[in-house]
Amino acid sequence: MKSSYDLENQYCAHNYHPLPVVLVRGKGVYVWDDRGRKYMDLMSAYSAVSHGHGHPRLVAALNKQAEILSIVSRAFYTDKLGSFLQLACNLTGQDMALPMNTGAEAVETAVKAARRWGYEIKGIPENKAEIIVCTGNFHGRTTTIISFSDEDEYQKNFGPLTPGFKVVTYGDSDALADAITANTAAFLVEPMQGEGGIIIPPDGYLKRCHKICRDKNVLLIADEIQTGLGRTGKFLACDHENVKPDALILGKALGGGILPVSMLLAKKEVMEIFVPGTHGSTFGGNPLAAAVGIEALNVIVEEQFAKRSYELGEYLLNEVAKIESPLIAEVRGSGLWVGIEVDPTLGSAREICERLMGRGILTKETHETVVRLAPPLIVEQEEIDWAVSQIKEVVAEMDKLRLAS
Ligand SMILES: *Cc1c(COP(=O)(O)O)cnc(C)c1O
Q1: Cβ atoms of residues 187 and 220 within 8 Å
Q2: Do 269 and 317 belong together in one domain?
Q3: Domain check: are 250 and 116 in the same one?
């Protein structure tokens, strides 16, 4: 009989390069492999598992709703969707929401909303709307979204690409101001970049962008699929600068690490451009997802994820920054969302991840040179201490090997 590892390699498209471990179970901040070995999860499925694996309240909400009603489509009202979106709007200060499933779908929804708002409200001539995005952006993998990526790997041989996007340097608000024209509908930005390598822009960047957008009648759309819901130490990353965007995209942790749940939230003027027939999703807003989403948001608030992330994140960042090694070029982050930048001439982030795996810690490199530390937000300080001690030993081990060779 073939192993799970061999079967996945044979039958699953090779669009990822996973670490060689077969996971079979998860609980809280830990996962177990097929040989019963336990690992601390410092990946949290790209922040989708902020609640930890199998949070009891979320599993209960899932099971309860699955017994009652799961999927009916938006052809009908349900007793769950309105309360879910009301809660999401109240927590984010937005007026209305459009529920989808994956992050990329919610970004697509934002692109459609921005363009239609541009034509119908701002008065941009037909088919001329532009959306400005940033260097190093990551907003998902659909054909339109990869069209405005500046990552060659994401784009190559997937053309023809969707026009209507302009890329400006991330962190440079003057570049945004210069790029805006009468046809600019929106600026789509991650308040902090995740897949770009945990990049924190200069202080005041988002606030300056917000003002520029307001002055020029351009929508500010914040993609908080990864940064939102407590990950960076505030409920939203936009909260670090007290910015309320015109539209906001949530996903990942919104599904509590159990289901794919995403949404576009926006002020009324933007959301009202959608009328029956203009957009949709068979699964978006289904009662099962809504029930899990409600509980996911309640847990985030009641268990004070943002505060935990802020305090423990600061601790984690300080502890990692104390590790002395030429291998570590930089340590940066916000909340429980830390990136270790490795000096590529001395070692690879992948090797650190492989060595950490051998010591019972799972994480993954991003952009070859960055090791991501993003534990579930329920992690305890002693668990962070243990993880940091392992990282320290791995780095020391690699330093020693390098000097010996
Ligand atoms: C993960 C991510 C997406 C895409 O979400 P999917 O659920 O994978 O489609 C979009 N934007 C950001 C900022 C992300 O981190």
Answers
A1: yes
A2: no
A3: yes
